[in-house]
Amino acid sequence: MKYSLNFLNQWIVCAEQQFKAHLAELNALDAAIGDGDHGSNLARGFTKVVEKLQADKPATPAALLKLVGMTLISSVGGASGPLYGTFFLEAAKVAGDQLQLDDAGLALCLQAGLAGIQRLGKAEPGDKTMVDALSPAVSVLNKQVGLEMAAQKAREGRDATIPMIAHKGRASYLGERAIGHADPGATSASLLFDCLAKP
Ligand code: ADP
Ligand code: MG
Ligand code: MG
Predict the structure, then answer these.
(1) Ligand 2 is a single-atom ion; what residues have CB below 5 A from it?
(2) Where do the DhaL domain residues begin and end (predicted)?
(3) pTM passes above 0.95
């Protein structure tokens, strides 16, 4: 498949809608093991992102991804703003001057995005963060099995955070009290992949 500017635009608009629809759920997950603002952070950030996309109308995938990343970094105060921001900025660098991405190109972009998140946040799979959903999803993308399989892997990764103790972020202060709750960032990451599969 080819991923056009229009496809990427729809992906981001879908993410904005999903984060708004799941705002209360994401805040509740974050209230259980953090400070209760993850849904509000992402809804605010992606609302700003969609406003900017409509105003600036970026002309290439790289320009779109860069605008998303810059806007998230400047408009989301929490840990997730710089982390998701870096994801999109690093993906933008790999997109280069391509006018549309093919399957391998999309996989490389998202792989670079994940590497950026891990460079910044130093989280590994198993630390109960967004990386637990993103990592299995991005790995399977490299095998060209389709976006629905990647979304499925992200959902499994999200669910796998439930029994984990957190080693990064606010939830790491809770020790064993974090057990039994899905990580909010892993949950938002799985929504992002749901949108990639069905924008
Ligand atoms: P804050 O914790 O600053 O309020 P958010 O609530 O928006 O920020 O985001 C919390 C989410 O960020 C967590 O659920 C986790 O998935 C993710 N996160 C926090 N720290 C890290 C990190 N070092 N690496 C990867 N993800 C992280
Ligand atoms: Mg929070
Ligand atoms: Mg916060």
Answers:
(1) 30, 34-35, 37-38, 78
(2) 6-198
(3) yes
